[in-house]
């Protein structure tokens, strides 16, 4: 029996590629659905974000090649739906970035350290390793050595196993008699703080608009997607260090509260706009459009992560 290749999600990029944008929208409003949406509806949905016809169709084709979506046909009309496993991957990612930002007060003083080696020719693997480690709060400390303040040894091992990288050492350690560089120096905290300050300055006017009720369905869809995409970049920048390791008045909590308020409040209007678009091409599917709050994403994400764990580790 031929093994089914798991979905390969597009890279998250500044400015969001058409593939990444469509994946985001499907994850926000069509996750866990098995029905297929008309390609014309998905093209029109991308059109809300000024993605042209050619680029939208190319995004659909590339996501199909990546195994993120699957296709079907009825007559001359094409339809696309999330591939098996894609919903769980999207929910697991959503869980991580929604959970991120909540204060981490308890820390046992130990660092998680991973050591590994990659050859110069393994560029794609290198990107995947670095990206997944940053999501777990790691940063490079010395060549081939990364550190995180989180107790994520098991998660790191699972990520390396999924990537097929076996020559890895993972352990937990305390810092002893530092004589120069400390693990905290792996991060540029001033730069991270400035990114939070920029986030707050960018989205405070939007929060004021939302509180005043001065926003329509189309703008709600655009703004909700944009703020979520902006927030999603922080787990790769900020190691989510315990508060006692951070400078005073660290701005993460304020930024997190702004994100949650705007994202959750705009959900009903944004979903309404998606329904309006889908209804033009498939009225019977429009009613299935749903949105999730951050609390929903946390609950569904926990379930998805459990389903994705190796069978022998479940319920351990």
From TrEMBL:
Residues 105-178 form the Transcriptional repressor PaaX-like central Cas2-like domain. It holds the Pfam family PaaX. Residues 21-83 form the Transcriptional repressor PaaX-like N-terminal domain. Residues 187-271 form the Transcriptional repressor PaaX-like C-terminal domain. This is PaaX family transcriptional regulator C-terminal domain-containing protein. It comes from Amycolatopsis pigmentata.
């Amino acid at each position: 029996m031929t093994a089914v290749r798991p979905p390969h999600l597009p890279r998250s990029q500044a400015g969001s590629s058409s593939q990444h944008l469509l994946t985001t929208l499907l994850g926000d409003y069509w996750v866990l659905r098995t029905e297929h949406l008309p390609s014309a509806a998905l093209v029109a949905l991308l059109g809300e974000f000024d993605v042209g016809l050619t680029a939208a169709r190319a995004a659909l084709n590339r996501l199909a090649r990546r195994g993120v979506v699957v296709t079907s046909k009825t007559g001359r009309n094409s339809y696309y739906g999330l591939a098996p496993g894609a919903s769980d991957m999207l929910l697991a990612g959503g869980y991580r970035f929604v959970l991120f930002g909540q204060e981490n007060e308890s820390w046992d003083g130990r660092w998680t350290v991973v050591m590994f080696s990659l050859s110069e020719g393994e560029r794609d693997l290198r990107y995947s390793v670095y990206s997944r480690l940053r999501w777990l709060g790691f940063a490079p400390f010395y060549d081939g050595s990364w550190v995180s303040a989180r107790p994520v040894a098991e998660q790191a091992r699972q990520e390396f196993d999924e990537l097929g990288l076996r020559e890895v050492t993972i352990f937990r350690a305390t810092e002893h008699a530092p004589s120069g560089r400390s693990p905290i120096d792996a991060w540029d905290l001033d730069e991270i703080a400035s990114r939070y300050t920029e986030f707050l300055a960018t989205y405070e006017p939007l929060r004021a608009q939302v509180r005043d009720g001065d926003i329509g369905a189309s703008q709600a869809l655009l703004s909700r997607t944009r703020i979520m995409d902006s927030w999603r970049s922080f787990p790769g920048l900020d190691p989510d260090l315990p508060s006692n390791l951070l400078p005073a008045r660290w701005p993460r909590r304020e930024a997190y509260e702004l994100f949650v308020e705007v994202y959750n409040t705009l959900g009903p209007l944004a979903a309404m706009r998606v329904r309006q678009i889908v209804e033009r091409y498939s009225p019977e599917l429009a009613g299935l459009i749903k949105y999730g709050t951050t609390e929903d994403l946390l609950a569904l994400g926990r379930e998805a992560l459990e389903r994705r764990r190796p069978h022998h580790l479940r319920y351990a």
